[in-house]
Amino acid sequence: MSGGTRLENANPVIFQRSGERLLTAADEDEDVQDPIDDREIFDLIRSINDPEHPLSLEELNVVEQIRVKVNDAESSVGIEFTPTIPHCSMATLIGLSIKVKLLRSLPDRFK
């Protein structure tokens, strides 16, 4: 605690990170257009830092790949995330962080 700021969840449970996605030759070939899938989206957001802790959203289990829904044909992405505590005051900031990361990383056609 610095400057009188009190953490809402001072001792969060830390989860193990999932392994890195194995890339195939087709994944690395810029001439092959592959669909954007849930793992690709998860890889973009998993390392976002939590606003209150020096931990990632994945390490705090705020985001999980199973809760990422992608419809490449309709250019839509949906993400459900779970704050570490009920009524988390940082939930809006976490949601905005995820949205900004995706807006900066995905083609303009995605909503």
From TrEMBL:
GO terms for biological process: chromosome segregation; protein maturation. It comes from the Eukaryota. Keywords: Chromosome partition. GO terms for cellular component: cytosolic [4Fe-4S] assembly targeting complex. Transmembrane segments: none annotated. InterPro entries: FSCA_dom_sf, MIP18, MIP18-like. Residues 39-108 form the MIP18 family-like domain. Component of the CIA complex. Component of the MMXD complex, which includes CIAO1, ERCC2, CIAO2B, MMS19 and SLC25A5. Interacts with CIAO1, ERCC2 and MMS19; the interactions are direct. Interacts with KIF4A; the interaction facilitates the transfer of Fe-S clusters to KIF4A to ensure proper localization of KIF4A to the mitotic machinery. Interacts with CCDC117; the interaction is direct. Belongs to the MIP18 family. Component of the cytosolic iron-sulfur protein assembly (CIA) complex, a multiprotein complex that mediates the incorporation of iron-sulfur cluster into extramitochondrial Fe/S proteins. As a CIA complex component and in collaboration with CIAO1 and MMS19, binds to and facilitates the assembly of most cytosolic-nuclear Fe/S proteins. As part of the mitotic spindle-associated MMXD complex it plays a role in chromosome segregation, probably by facilitating iron-sulfur cluster assembly into ERCC2/XPD. This is Cytosolic iron-sulfur assembly component 2B.
